[in-house]
Amino acid sequence: MTNRICVAQIGAAHGIRGEVKLRSFTQDPAAVAGYGPLESEDGARHFTIEALRPAKDHFVVRLAGVADRDAAEKLVNLRLYVSRDRLPPIEDGDTYYHTDLIGLAAVSEDGSALGTVTAVHNFGAGDLVEIKPHGGGEPLMVPFNETTVPEIDMTARRMIVRPLTETE
Q1: Cβ distance 63 to 50 under 8 Å?
Q2: How far is the C-alpha of 26 from the C-alpha of 49, rounded, in Å?
Q3: Which among 145, 148, 155, 156 is least buried, having the fewest CB atoms inside 10 angstroms?
């Protein structure tokens, strides 16, 4: 498990005063403003949210020190992280930080190895687990729900996966 969690990603610049679109990855999307300074993936830059307002499918934020559109445009696609200890503890046994799922072995119900979890995506219709098959080939994408992922064993570092069939 990693010590830092990706909580947001900066999108396009918004307006001329340095505001940016921000996509939050937290369970309560507005909570991203309360975690304190956010940092770049390399840890070299820190950002404080001065103002946050909701938009259609994102937030518009003003970051301290980002005063104009040119500065905002340099931040496009920057992922923002916080230390795990600044996030609320997970109390529900069926809730996970996506980063904790990366690297789990994906196995079928009969125990056959399917591959390794390489990512968790959300393109707007719910989370998808990306599994890299052993031996290469196209990644397997499965919905992250109780039907296709009926069990996760964090101690054993494995996930039971029921791939969808063509009839489902």
Answers
A1: yes
A2: 15
A3: 155
Cα dihedral across residues 76, 77, 83, 88: positive or negative = positive
pLDDT band for position 73 (50/70/90)? very high
pLDDT of residue 136 exceeding 90, the answer is no
The residue behind tokens 């020190």 is: 65
Q: 3-class SS at 156?
A: coil
What architecture (CATH level 2) is domain 4-86? Answer: Beta Barrel (2.40)
Q: Cα angle at 52 between 128 and 32, to 5 degrees? A: 45
Fold of the 98-160 domain: SH3 type barrels. (2.30.30)
* DSSP type of residue 34: G
